[in-house]
Design a protein that fits this description.
This protein is mostly beta strands and 234 residues long. The protein contains no helices and 30 strands. It is globular. The termini are far apart.
């Protein structure tokens, strides 16, 4: 197994460790005990809070089916904020003025769009694509290969899944959340589910089939109960 890339201490901030090729623009703000791995690219105005780890190399479990291809460096856009204790892997892209909350985890090849917020303790898995102005609240899990369009709202504790066979093989199917849909707290979405534009999934629902645009669904399993009214449309 190859040895990890070397890190060197920097006097730019207390306890800061930098990998090869990392350049820090003068406007970047850095807290204590931050680690920035080799090649990570930071734009102007980025804020990195205490204990964050940026550009972490990929480590996979013995039975993982994730790609082991070489990853490009992490890219963090202008004015983005990486909060305390967050971990962002190599190969991810963080958009302008986006925020990755305290203790959040963003995996390889994930894309976080402009002005999107990832809440505290939430996890964005590999190959997830989030559009602009998405709001992911505390303690959510966005499963690998999911797509989240602009202006989606994901309430606390939402769980998405992508393995129809529950670990017994087959293709992984992430969820698709269309523009401006809303997912209520604690909802569970099964693999491959698509939630339509401006649809609303109620808190605690278990979504086992696609949700039509502008439809409100609730229950276990979730069923359509009415249309989202005009005054709630974005």
């Amino acid at each position: 197994m190859p040895s990890p890339p070397a890190l060197r201490p920097s006097d730019r901030a207390p306890g800061l460790l930098l990998g090869d090729g990392v350049e820090l623009p003068g406007s970047v703000e850095i807290g204590g005990n931050v680690v920035i791995h080799a090649g990570t690219a930071l734009a102007e105005g980025v804020v990195i809070q205490d204990g964050a780890i940026l550009g972490k190399p990929l480590t996979l479990g013995a039975h993982s089916r994730a790609s082991e291809d070489a990853l490009p460096p992490l890219v963090v856009g202008e004015g983005a904020r990486i909060c305390a204790g967050a971990v962002v892997l190599a190969g991810a892209r963080i958009g302008r003025r986006a925020m990755v909350g305290d203790r959040a985890h963003v995996r390889e090849r994930a894309t976080i769009g402009e002005e999107t917020t990832i809440g505290s303790g939430s996890a964005v898995d590999n190959d997830v694509e989030l559009g602009a102005r998405v709001r992911v609240q505390t303690g959510c899990y966005l499963t690998a290969f999911s797509r989240v369009e602009d202006d989606v709202f994901v309430a606390p504790g939402v769980l998405t899944t992508n393995d129809p066979a529950a670990g017994r093989g087959g293709n992984l199917e992430g969820v698709v959340l269309r523009r401006a849909c809303r997912i209520g707290g604690g909802a569970v979405l099964l693999p491959g589910i698509e939630v339509g534009e401006e649809a609303f999934v109620a808190a605690g629902a278990v979504v086992t089939r696609d949700v039509a645009p502008r439809s409100l669904v609730m229950g276990v399993p979730a069923k359509a109960v009415r249309e989202v009214p005009e005054d709630e449309l974005l």
